[in-house]
TrEMBL record:
Bias type Polar residues, positions: 1-19
Record: residues binding ATP: K79
Annotated TM spans: 122-140
Alphabetical UniProt keywords: ATP-binding, Kinase, Membrane, Nucleotide-binding, Serine/threonine-protein kinase, Transferase, Transmembrane, Transmembrane helix
Listed Gene3D superfamilies: Phosphorylase Kinase, domain 1 (3.30.200.20)
Residue intervals of the Protein kinase domain: 45-146
Top-level taxonomy: Eukaryota, Sar, Rhizaria, Retaria, Foraminifera
Record-linked InterPro entries: Kinase-like_dom_sf, Prot_kinase_dom, Protein_kinase_ATP_BS, Ser_Thr_kinase_AGC
GO biological process: intracellular signal transduction
Identification of the protein by name: non-specific serine/threonine protein kinase
Record carries keyword Kinase: yes
Length: 146
């Protein structure tokens, strides 16, 4: 009886060790394949039509064209802010607050998700999930009304 319980404990310990090793391998593979530490640049994107504009920024469609990016072929709404205008009109504080708010509300289902941000010499760029009219209509009609 004692031998049987010892064998069960040994088997359980081995299975636990094997599953832990498999999980570590999966995490390592995901990190290698997903390029989690990938730094985006303006050259990684193809910018499309203008979606809207404001006092110190404009929003355009953007598509990731770099195959090394984990978001390859994904579409985003790209907010492009002019650095010179932000500094000139003393809006740096508000831009930082906006970025913090989007980062804090990222897991919330009813707030637009900011995927990443970067800057170049002239502008700040933030990338949000692009929700087209047709996607909205489909979601509204089939998910909420039915």
């Amino acid at each position: 009886m004692a031998d049987q319980s010892n064998n069960q404990i040994t088997d359980a310990t081995q299975q636990n060790a094997e599953s832990t090793n498999k999980k570590q391998e999966v995490v390592k593979a995901k990190k290698e394949n997903k390029n989690i530490d990938y730094k985006h640049q303006k050259e990684d994107f193809e910018l499309g039509k203008l979606l809207g504009g404001g006092s110190y920024a404009k929003v355009v469609e953007g598509k990731v064209t770099n195959p090394n990016s984990p978001f390859f072929n994904s579409e985003f709404a790209v907010k492009i802010m002019d650095k010179r205008h932000i500094v000139k009109n003393d809006k740096v504080k508000y831009v930082n607050i906006e970025k913090k708010v989007f980062l804090l509300t990222n897991p919330h289902p009813f707030v637009c998700h900011m995927h990443f941000a970067f800057q170049d010499n002239y502008s700040l760029c933030t990338f949000f999930f692009f929700f087209s009219f047709y996607m909205f209509y489909y979601y509204y009609y089939f998910e909420l009304l039915l």
